[in-house]
Amino acid sequence: MSRIGKKPIVVPDKVQVTFEGQLLKAKGPKGTLELNIPNEISFTFENNTITFECGSQEKHARSLFGLTRALAANVVEGVSNGFTRVLQIEGVGYRAEIKGTNLMLSLGYSHPILVIPPEGVELAAPNANTIQVKGIDKQVVGELSARIRRLRPPEPYKGKGIRFEGEFIRRKAGKTSSK
To answer: What's the pTM?
Structure first.
């Protein structure tokens, strides 16, 4: 049985959770999100606590058990606090700036790159070498962050590129002369 799936989700006072059949709707100060719960998973909501139970012992149902609990916890966390991913830019001439709601990146290519965020996601550049991706949906925030990082991934020799905050890049030694 999943250890994550057994953990109850405590819903904060500022978040309203409602269930319509197998659809979980959460409304909080940051916005509203919905999650469709699979039929194999049963749930109970009492005393501001959501608990999940696995309906059968089939492999498919057991694999959905922990996943559903984690997704539901992300929905509750997203509408109450939101999610933020921070990216660091390293390299001479590499920089980021905000143009309206869009992000303009100079990454050493012959042209600047314009990143248009999806609805519900906010981009910020507190300085030229830092990008913040904020939103209530963890999946969308993570996907946009990964898409931005993919524009110029960090290289192993000088470490130039875009990396997640706290990400470790394994460095390689350059060529040496044989003299």
So the answer is: 0.89
- pLDDT at site 1: 59
> What's the CATH superfamily of 3-80?
Ribosomal protein L6 (3.90.930.12)
Strand order of the β-sheet with 41-46 is: 9-10, 49-54, 41-46
Give pLDDT, residue 58.
Answer: 87
In the block, residue with structure tokens 């498919």: 60
Inter-CA distances, 142 with 82, 105, 109, 148, Å: 12, 18, 24, 10
In tens, the pLDDT along 55-89 reads 788 888 888 999 999 999 999 999 999 999 999 99
Q: Could you tell me which residues come within 8 angstroms of residue 23 by beta carbon, excluding any fewer than 6 positions away? A: 34, 35, 36, 37
Strand partners, 177: none
Residue 179 has pLDDT above 80, yes or no: no
Phi, psi (rounded to 5 degrees) for 168: -95, 130
- Residue 72 φ then ψ, to 5°: -65, -40
- For the domain bounded by 83-164, which CATH number is listed? 3.90.930.12
